[in-house]
Amino acid sequence: AQRVTQPEKLLSVFKGAPVELKCNYSYSGSPELFWYVQYSRQRLQLLLRHISRESIKGFTADLNKGETSFHLKKPFAQEEDSAMYYCALVGGAGNNRKLIWGLGTSLAVNP
Amino acid sequence: GAVVSQHPSRVICKSGTSVKIECRSLDFQATTMFWYRQFPKKSLMLMATSNEGSKATYEQGVEKDKFLINHASLTLSTLTVTSAHPEDSSFYICSARVGNHEAFFGQGTRLTVV
Fold it and tell me: Is B112 in contact with B85 (CB distance < 8 Å)?
Protein backbone atom coordinates (compact mmCIF):
# COMPACT_ATOMS: atom_id res chain seq x y z
CA ALA A 1 0.00 0.00 0.00
CA GLN A 2 1.12 3.54 -0.70
CA ARG A 3 1.39 5.50 2.48
CA VAL A 4 3.14 8.49 4.00
CA THR A 5 3.66 8.64 7.74
CA GLN A 6 4.56 11.74 9.70
CA PRO A 7 4.77 10.50 13.27
CA GLU A 8 4.83 13.90 14.96
CA LYS A 9 1.71 16.06 15.00
CA LEU A 10 3.49 18.89 16.72
CA LEU A 11 7.13 19.79 17.03
CA SER A 12 8.25 22.64 19.20
CA VAL A 13 11.81 23.96 19.18
CA PHE A 14 13.64 27.09 20.21
CA LYS A 15 15.03 29.54 17.71
CA GLY A 16 18.49 28.52 16.62
CA ALA A 17 18.00 24.87 17.49
CA PRO A 18 18.22 22.13 14.87
CA VAL A 19 14.96 20.74 13.63
CA GLU A 20 14.07 17.46 11.98
CA LEU A 21 10.58 16.65 10.75
CA LYS A 22 10.21 12.96 10.16
CA CYS A 23 8.61 11.36 7.14
CA ASN A 24 8.48 7.68 6.30
CA TYR A 25 6.86 6.20 3.25
CA SER A 26 5.60 2.95 1.84
CA TYR A 27 5.75 2.59 -1.92
CA SER A 28 6.43 -0.35 -4.17
CA GLY A 29 8.17 1.47 -6.98
CA SER A 30 10.71 4.26 -7.17
CA PRO A 31 9.28 7.04 -5.02
CA GLU A 32 8.93 10.70 -5.89
CA LEU A 33 8.74 12.66 -2.66
CA PHE A 34 7.95 16.23 -1.74
CA TRP A 35 7.71 18.51 1.24
CA TYR A 36 4.96 21.12 1.19
CA VAL A 37 4.59 23.96 3.68
CA GLN A 38 1.57 25.97 4.75
CA TYR A 39 2.28 29.17 6.65
CA SER A 40 -0.47 30.72 8.72
CA ARG A 41 -3.25 32.09 6.50
CA GLN A 42 -1.36 31.21 3.33
CA ARG A 43 -1.83 28.58 0.70
CA LEU A 44 0.06 25.33 0.49
CA GLN A 45 3.28 25.66 -1.42
CA LEU A 46 6.02 23.37 -2.49
CA LEU A 47 9.08 23.55 -0.28
CA LEU A 48 11.30 21.00 -1.93
CA ARG A 49 11.35 17.76 -3.85
CA HIS A 50 13.82 14.94 -3.56
CA ILE A 51 14.77 14.85 -7.23
CA SER A 52 16.05 18.41 -7.08
CA ARG A 53 18.37 17.74 -4.16
CA GLU A 54 18.14 21.43 -3.33
CA SER A 55 18.15 23.47 -0.17
CA ILE A 56 15.25 25.87 0.23
CA LYS A 57 15.13 28.36 3.10
CA GLY A 58 17.89 26.34 4.73
CA PHE A 59 15.88 23.12 4.66
CA THR A 60 17.17 19.91 3.14
CA ALA A 61 15.71 16.46 2.82
CA ASP A 62 17.50 13.31 1.75
CA LEU A 63 15.76 10.27 0.42
CA ASN A 64 16.90 7.19 2.29
CA LYS A 65 15.56 4.19 0.43
CA GLY A 66 16.94 1.74 2.96
CA GLU A 67 15.01 3.34 5.78
CA THR A 68 12.17 4.50 3.46
CA SER A 69 12.50 7.95 4.90
CA PHE A 70 12.56 11.52 3.66
CA HIS A 71 13.14 13.56 6.78
CA LEU A 72 13.20 17.35 6.55
CA LYS A 73 16.06 19.05 8.35
CA LYS A 74 17.29 22.50 9.16
CA PRO A 75 20.36 23.15 11.31
CA PHE A 76 19.14 26.42 12.86
CA ALA A 77 15.42 27.01 13.09
CA GLN A 78 13.98 30.51 12.70
CA GLU A 79 10.69 31.86 14.04
CA GLU A 80 9.44 32.36 10.50
CA ASP A 81 9.75 28.62 9.94
CA SER A 82 6.71 28.09 12.15
CA ALA A 83 4.18 26.45 9.86
CA MET A 84 2.46 23.23 8.95
CA TYR A 85 4.67 20.85 6.99
CA TYR A 86 3.36 18.04 4.85
CA CYS A 87 5.32 15.21 3.34
CA ALA A 88 3.83 13.81 0.14
CA LEU A 89 4.48 11.00 -2.29
CA VAL A 90 3.41 10.83 -5.89
CA GLY A 91 1.47 7.68 -6.59
CA GLY A 92 -0.25 6.34 -9.68
CA ALA A 93 0.61 6.93 -13.30
CA GLY A 94 -0.52 9.15 -16.16
CA ASN A 95 -3.79 10.88 -15.44
CA ASN A 96 -4.09 8.93 -12.22
CA ARG A 97 -0.98 10.50 -10.73
CA LYS A 98 -1.84 12.07 -7.40
CA LEU A 99 -0.20 13.15 -4.22
CA ILE A 100 -0.48 10.90 -1.21
CA TRP A 101 -0.21 13.02 1.91
CA GLY A 102 1.09 12.57 5.38
CA LEU A 103 -0.99 13.98 8.21
CA GLY A 104 1.33 16.91 8.61
CA THR A 105 3.54 18.22 11.37
CA SER A 106 2.97 21.58 12.96
CA LEU A 107 6.32 23.21 13.66
CA ALA A 108 6.46 25.89 16.30
CA VAL A 109 9.71 27.80 16.64
CA ASN A 110 9.80 29.68 19.91
CA PRO A 111 11.88 32.81 20.53
CA GLY B 1 5.51 29.80 -9.80
CA ALA B 2 2.16 29.35 -11.45
CA VAL B 3 -0.97 30.86 -9.90
CA VAL B 4 -4.15 29.06 -9.00
CA SER B 5 -7.07 31.15 -7.90
CA GLN B 6 -10.08 29.96 -5.97
CA HIS B 7 -13.33 31.85 -5.64
CA PRO B 8 -14.93 32.59 -3.31
CA SER B 9 -12.42 32.52 -0.48
CA ARG B 10 -15.20 32.42 2.05
CA VAL B 11 -18.88 31.56 1.78
CA ILE B 12 -21.74 31.12 4.20
CA CYS B 13 -24.85 29.38 3.00
CA LYS B 14 -28.08 28.06 4.40
CA SER B 15 -28.59 24.37 4.94
CA GLY B 16 -30.18 22.77 1.89
CA THR B 17 -28.78 25.19 -0.66
CA SER B 18 -25.99 24.52 -3.16
CA VAL B 19 -22.67 26.27 -3.34
CA LYS B 20 -20.28 26.47 -6.27
CA ILE B 21 -16.55 26.95 -5.82
CA GLU B 22 -14.37 27.88 -8.76
CA CYS B 23 -10.75 27.00 -9.31
CA ARG B 24 -8.82 28.70 -12.07
CA SER B 25 -5.27 28.32 -13.29
CA LEU B 26 -4.37 31.87 -14.23
CA ASP B 27 -1.20 31.55 -16.24
CA PHE B 28 -1.05 27.95 -17.33
CA GLN B 29 -3.28 25.24 -18.67
CA ALA B 30 -3.99 22.56 -16.11
CA THR B 31 -4.49 19.08 -17.46
CA THR B 32 -5.45 17.83 -14.04
CA MET B 33 -7.11 19.49 -11.09
CA PHE B 34 -7.55 18.09 -7.62
CA TRP B 35 -10.10 18.93 -4.97
CA TYR B 36 -9.23 18.50 -1.33
CA ARG B 37 -10.97 18.96 1.94
CA GLN B 38 -8.97 20.05 4.93
CA PHE B 39 -10.23 19.51 8.44
CA PRO B 40 -9.04 21.63 11.34
CA LYS B 41 -5.55 20.68 12.42
CA LYS B 42 -5.63 17.69 10.10
CA SER B 43 -4.24 16.69 6.79
CA LEU B 44 -5.61 17.13 3.33
CA MET B 45 -8.21 14.67 2.21
CA LEU B 46 -8.29 14.18 -1.54
CA MET B 47 -11.87 14.23 -2.70
CA ALA B 48 -11.51 13.83 -6.44
CA THR B 49 -9.24 14.16 -9.42
CA SER B 50 -10.53 15.77 -12.56
CA ASN B 51 -9.01 15.75 -15.99
CA GLU B 52 -10.21 18.27 -18.53
CA GLY B 53 -13.01 16.94 -20.67
CA SER B 54 -13.59 13.75 -18.73
CA LYS B 55 -15.51 12.71 -15.64
CA ALA B 56 -13.91 13.23 -12.30
CA THR B 57 -12.48 10.30 -10.38
CA TYR B 58 -13.76 10.34 -6.84
CA GLU B 59 -11.97 8.91 -3.85
CA GLN B 60 -13.61 6.19 -1.83
CA GLY B 61 -16.26 7.52 0.49
CA VAL B 62 -16.83 10.78 -1.41
CA GLU B 63 -20.36 11.11 -2.74
CA LYS B 64 -20.39 11.97 -6.43
CA ASP B 65 -23.89 13.37 -6.32
CA LYS B 66 -23.10 15.49 -3.32
CA PHE B 67 -19.89 16.99 -4.63
CA LEU B 68 -20.28 17.73 -8.32
CA ILE B 69 -17.09 18.46 -10.18
CA ASN B 70 -16.90 19.99 -13.61
CA HIS B 71 -13.65 20.53 -15.48
CA ALA B 72 -14.92 22.12 -18.64
CA SER B 73 -11.73 23.82 -19.73
CA LEU B 74 -8.00 23.65 -19.15
CA THR B 75 -8.17 26.65 -16.85
CA LEU B 76 -11.35 26.12 -14.88
CA SER B 77 -12.75 23.46 -12.59
CA THR B 78 -15.76 23.87 -10.35
CA LEU B 79 -16.88 22.05 -7.24
CA THR B 80 -20.56 22.28 -6.37
CA VAL B 81 -21.64 21.19 -2.93
CA THR B 82 -25.25 20.24 -3.41
CA SER B 83 -27.87 20.43 -0.68
CA ALA B 84 -25.25 21.51 1.78
CA HIS B 85 -25.51 20.56 5.43
CA PRO B 86 -23.59 21.81 8.45
CA GLU B 87 -21.33 18.75 8.34
CA ASP B 88 -20.15 19.93 4.91
CA SER B 89 -18.65 22.98 6.54
CA SER B 90 -14.95 22.78 5.88
CA PHE B 91 -11.98 24.24 4.07
CA TYR B 92 -11.90 23.19 0.44
CA ILE B 93 -8.70 23.48 -1.56
CA CYS B 94 -8.05 22.93 -5.21
CA SER B 95 -4.77 22.31 -6.92
CA ALA B 96 -3.84 22.25 -10.56
CA ARG B 97 -1.15 20.40 -12.40
CA VAL B 98 0.15 20.44 -15.92
CA GLY B 99 1.53 17.15 -17.16
CA ASN B 100 3.77 15.49 -14.62
CA HIS B 101 4.92 18.72 -13.09
CA GLU B 102 4.28 19.97 -9.60
CA ALA B 103 0.85 20.88 -8.42
CA PHE B 104 -0.01 24.45 -7.49
CA PHE B 105 -2.58 25.21 -4.86
CA GLY B 106 -5.42 27.65 -4.58
CA GLN B 107 -5.84 29.74 -1.47
CA GLY B 108 -8.77 27.64 -0.34
CA THR B 109 -12.46 28.29 0.31
CA ARG B 110 -13.92 28.33 3.78
CA LEU B 111 -17.46 27.00 3.57
CA THR B 112 -19.81 27.47 6.48
CA VAL B 113 -23.27 25.95 6.30
CA VAL B 114 -25.73 27.35 8.80
Answer: no
